[in-house]
Protein backbone atom coordinates (compact mmCIF):
# COMPACT_ATOMS: atom_id res chain seq x y z
CA UNK A 1 0.00 0.00 0.00
CA UNK A 2 0.96 3.67 -0.23
CA UNK A 3 0.68 6.22 2.56
CA UNK A 4 1.26 9.97 2.28
CA UNK A 5 3.01 11.42 5.33
CA UNK A 6 3.43 15.14 4.95
CA UNK A 7 5.57 15.50 1.82
CA UNK A 8 6.65 11.84 1.83
CA UNK A 9 5.17 9.08 -0.32
CA UNK A 10 5.74 5.87 1.65
CA UNK A 11 5.46 2.39 0.15
CA UNK A 12 4.43 -0.16 2.76
CA UNK A 13 4.99 -3.88 2.19
CA UNK A 14 3.24 -5.90 0.91
CA UNK A 15 3.22 -3.76 -2.23
CA UNK A 16 0.90 -4.45 -5.17
CA UNK A 17 1.15 -3.67 -8.88
CA UNK A 18 -1.62 -1.14 -8.37
CA UNK A 19 0.43 0.67 -5.72
CA UNK A 20 3.15 1.30 -8.32
CA UNK A 21 0.90 2.30 -11.21
CA UNK A 22 1.22 6.06 -10.68
CA UNK A 23 4.88 6.10 -9.61
CA UNK A 24 7.14 7.48 -12.32
CA UNK A 25 10.87 7.73 -12.90
CA UNK A 26 12.34 10.61 -10.93
CA UNK A 27 9.79 10.27 -8.12
CA UNK A 28 11.12 10.07 -4.58
CA UNK A 29 9.63 7.46 -2.28
CA UNK A 30 10.31 5.90 1.11
CA UNK A 31 9.81 2.31 2.29
CA UNK A 32 8.23 0.76 5.37
CA UNK A 33 8.26 -2.95 6.10
CA UNK A 34 10.35 -5.80 4.71
CA UNK A 35 13.71 -5.15 3.03
CA UNK A 36 16.21 -7.97 2.43
CA UNK A 37 19.84 -7.41 1.44
CA UNK A 38 20.60 -9.46 -1.65
CA UNK A 39 23.74 -9.36 -3.79
CA UNK A 40 25.57 -11.26 -6.51
CA UNK A 41 25.85 -14.72 -4.99
CA UNK A 42 22.23 -14.91 -3.87
CA UNK A 43 21.08 -13.92 -7.37
CA UNK A 44 23.37 -16.55 -8.87
CA UNK A 45 22.21 -19.26 -6.48
CA UNK A 46 18.58 -18.65 -7.39
CA UNK A 47 18.91 -18.08 -11.14
CA UNK A 48 21.82 -20.31 -12.13
CA UNK A 49 21.60 -23.08 -9.54
CA UNK A 50 17.87 -23.16 -8.89
CA UNK A 51 18.13 -22.79 -5.12
CA UNK A 52 15.01 -21.27 -3.58
CA UNK A 53 15.45 -18.26 -1.37
CA UNK A 54 14.94 -19.16 2.30
CA UNK A 55 12.93 -15.97 2.83
CA UNK A 56 9.77 -15.00 0.95
CA UNK A 57 10.22 -11.63 -0.78
CA UNK A 58 7.03 -11.65 -2.86
CA UNK A 59 5.56 -8.12 -2.85
CA UNK A 60 8.49 -6.98 -0.71
CA UNK A 61 11.82 -5.25 -1.37
CA UNK A 62 15.47 -6.17 -1.80
CA UNK A 63 18.57 -4.02 -1.35
CA UNK A 64 21.72 -4.53 -3.39
CA UNK A 65 23.99 -4.02 -0.40
CA UNK A 66 26.73 -5.67 1.62
CA UNK A 67 26.13 -4.43 5.16
CA UNK A 68 28.19 -4.36 8.32
CA UNK A 69 26.32 -5.87 11.25
CA UNK A 70 27.25 -6.71 14.82
CA UNK A 71 25.92 -9.19 17.32
CA UNK A 72 23.89 -7.70 20.14
CA UNK A 73 25.64 -8.52 23.40
CA UNK A 74 23.75 -10.80 25.72
CA UNK A 75 21.68 -12.37 22.96
CA UNK A 76 22.00 -15.76 21.31
CA UNK A 77 21.38 -14.80 17.68
CA UNK A 78 20.33 -11.15 17.45
CA UNK A 79 22.17 -8.63 15.32
CA UNK A 80 21.98 -4.90 14.68
CA UNK A 81 22.79 -2.93 11.57
CA UNK A 82 25.92 -0.77 11.72
CA UNK A 83 26.24 0.33 8.10
CA UNK A 84 24.29 -0.63 4.97
CA UNK A 85 25.27 1.26 1.83
CA UNK A 86 24.12 0.31 -1.66
CA UNK A 87 26.35 -1.60 -4.04
CA UNK A 88 26.36 -1.20 -7.82
CA UNK A 89 23.09 -2.57 -9.14
CA UNK A 90 24.43 -3.20 -12.65
CA UNK A 91 26.32 -6.21 -11.29
CA UNK A 92 22.94 -7.93 -10.86
CA UNK A 93 21.61 -6.87 -14.27
CA UNK A 94 22.07 -10.20 -16.04
CA UNK A 95 20.08 -11.98 -13.30
CA UNK A 96 17.36 -9.46 -12.52
CA UNK A 97 14.71 -10.49 -15.06
CA UNK A 98 14.69 -14.12 -13.93
CA UNK A 99 15.12 -13.11 -10.29
CA UNK A 100 12.06 -10.83 -10.42
CA UNK A 101 10.02 -13.44 -12.27
CA UNK A 102 10.86 -16.20 -9.79
CA UNK A 103 10.52 -14.22 -6.56
CA UNK A 104 7.78 -11.66 -7.18
CA UNK A 105 9.91 -8.95 -5.61
CA UNK A 106 8.26 -5.57 -6.03
CA UNK A 107 10.95 -2.99 -5.17
CA UNK A 108 14.65 -3.31 -6.05
CA UNK A 109 17.02 -0.82 -4.40
CA UNK A 110 20.66 -0.22 -5.21
CA UNK A 111 23.25 2.20 -6.57
CA UNK A 112 23.36 3.48 -10.13
CA UNK A 113 21.20 2.45 -13.03
CA UNK A 114 20.21 -0.90 -14.50
CA UNK A 115 19.61 -2.06 -18.06
CA UNK A 116 17.14 -3.76 -20.40
CA UNK A 117 16.76 -6.97 -18.37
CA UNK A 118 15.53 -4.98 -15.40
CA UNK A 119 13.42 -2.67 -17.56
CA UNK A 120 11.69 -5.74 -19.00
CA UNK A 121 11.20 -7.28 -15.56
CA UNK A 122 9.69 -4.12 -14.11
CA UNK A 123 7.31 -3.75 -17.05
CA UNK A 124 6.21 -7.39 -17.22
CA UNK A 125 5.95 -8.12 -13.51
CA UNK A 126 5.04 -4.72 -12.06
CA UNK A 127 8.17 -3.76 -10.15
CA UNK A 128 10.42 -0.72 -9.78
CA UNK A 129 14.13 -0.08 -9.32
CA UNK A 130 15.19 2.72 -7.00
CA UNK A 131 18.49 4.38 -6.17
CA UNK A 132 19.54 4.95 -2.57
CA UNK A 133 22.02 7.87 -2.30
CA UNK A 134 25.59 6.60 -2.15
CA UNK A 135 27.75 7.60 0.80
CA UNK A 136 24.87 7.41 3.30
CA UNK A 137 25.40 3.89 4.64
CA UNK A 138 25.29 4.90 8.31
CA UNK A 139 22.14 6.95 7.75
CA UNK A 140 20.56 3.94 6.04
CA UNK A 141 21.40 1.78 9.07
CA UNK A 142 19.45 4.14 11.34
CA UNK A 143 16.37 3.44 9.22
CA UNK A 144 16.61 -0.30 9.92
CA UNK A 145 14.41 -0.96 12.94
CA UNK A 146 15.37 -4.60 13.35
CA UNK A 147 17.12 -7.52 11.68
CA UNK A 148 14.43 -10.18 11.98
CA UNK A 149 16.13 -13.09 10.18
CA UNK A 150 19.38 -13.95 8.44
CA UNK A 151 20.15 -16.76 6.01
CA UNK A 152 23.04 -18.20 3.99
CA UNK A 153 25.51 -17.01 6.63
CA UNK A 154 28.14 -19.28 5.10
CA UNK A 155 28.53 -16.71 2.31
CA UNK A 156 30.04 -14.19 4.73
CA UNK A 157 28.65 -10.97 6.12
CA UNK A 158 28.29 -8.98 2.85
CA UNK A 159 26.50 -11.78 0.96
CA UNK A 160 24.32 -13.05 3.81
CA UNK A 161 20.60 -12.45 3.34
CA UNK A 162 19.82 -9.95 6.10
CA UNK A 163 16.05 -9.65 6.43
CA UNK A 164 15.12 -6.31 7.93
CA UNK A 165 12.17 -4.29 9.12
CA UNK A 166 12.65 -0.69 8.01
CA UNK A 167 10.88 2.56 8.74
CA UNK A 168 10.82 5.40 6.20
CA UNK A 169 13.84 3.90 4.47
CA UNK A 170 15.05 6.40 1.91
CA UNK A 171 15.00 8.69 0.12
CA UNK A 172 14.71 6.35 -2.84
CA UNK A 173 14.84 7.83 -6.33
CA UNK A 174 12.82 5.81 -8.83
CA UNK A 175 15.14 4.97 -11.73
CA UNK A 176 13.00 2.35 -13.51
CA UNK A 177 9.23 2.46 -13.16
CA UNK A 178 6.59 -0.22 -13.68
CA UNK A 179 6.13 0.96 -17.28
CA UNK A 180 9.76 0.11 -17.99
CA UNK A 181 10.97 3.69 -18.39
CA UNK A 182 14.60 4.15 -17.38
CA UNK A 183 15.66 7.47 -15.85
CA UNK A 184 19.37 6.91 -16.43
CA UNK A 185 18.96 5.96 -20.09
CA UNK A 186 16.56 8.81 -20.84
CA UNK A 187 18.87 11.29 -19.14
CA UNK A 188 21.83 10.05 -21.19
CA UNK A 189 20.06 11.23 -24.34
CA UNK A 190 19.23 14.62 -22.84
CA UNK A 191 22.70 15.16 -21.37
CA UNK A 192 24.43 14.16 -24.60
CA UNK A 193 22.36 16.73 -26.49
CA UNK A 194 23.28 19.39 -23.94
CA UNK A 195 26.92 18.34 -24.07
CA UNK A 196 27.13 18.85 -27.81
CA UNK A 197 25.58 22.31 -27.57
CA UNK A 198 27.97 23.24 -24.74
CA UNK A 199 30.98 22.05 -26.75
CA UNK A 200 29.98 24.17 -29.72
CA UNK A 201 29.66 27.21 -27.45
CA UNK A 202 33.07 26.61 -25.86
CA UNK A 203 35.08 25.85 -28.99
CA UNK A 204 35.33 29.48 -30.19
CA UNK A 205 36.73 30.49 -26.81
CA UNK A 206 39.46 27.83 -26.80
CA UNK A 207 40.35 27.69 -30.50
CA UNK A 208 43.89 28.84 -29.67
CA UNK A 209 44.56 25.51 -27.91
CA UNK A 210 46.18 22.98 -30.23
TrEMBL record:
<comment type="subunit">
    <text>Heterotetramer of two alpha and two beta subunits.</text>
</comment>
<feature type="domain" description="Fe-S hydro-lyase tartrate dehydratase beta-type catalytic">
    <location>
        <begin position="12"/>
        <end position="186"/>
    </location>
</feature>
<protein>
    <recommendedName>
        <fullName>L(+)-tartrate dehydratase subunit beta</fullName>
        <ecNumber>4.2.1.32</ecNumber>
    </recommendedName>
</protein>
<comment type="similarity">
    <text>Belongs to the class-I fumarase family.</text>
</comment>
<dbReference type="GO" id="GO:0008730">
    <property type="term" value="F:L(+)-tartrate dehydratase activity"/>
</dbReference>
<dbReference type="InterPro" id="IPR036660">
    <property type="entry name" value="Fe-S_hydroAse_TtdB_cat_sf"/>
</dbReference>
<dbReference type="InterPro" id="IPR004647">
    <property type="entry name" value="Fe-S_hydro-lyase_TtdB-typ_cat"/>
</dbReference>
<dbReference type="Pfam" id="PF05683">
    <property type="entry name" value="Fumerase_C"/>
</dbReference>
<keyword id="KW-0456">Lyase</keyword>
Amino acid sequence: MIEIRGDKKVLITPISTEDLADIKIGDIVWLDGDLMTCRDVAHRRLVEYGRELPYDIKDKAIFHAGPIVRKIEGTEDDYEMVSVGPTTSMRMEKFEYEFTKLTGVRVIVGKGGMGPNTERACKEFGAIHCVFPAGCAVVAATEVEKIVEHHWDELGMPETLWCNKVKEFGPLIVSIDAQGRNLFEENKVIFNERKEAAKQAIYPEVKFIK
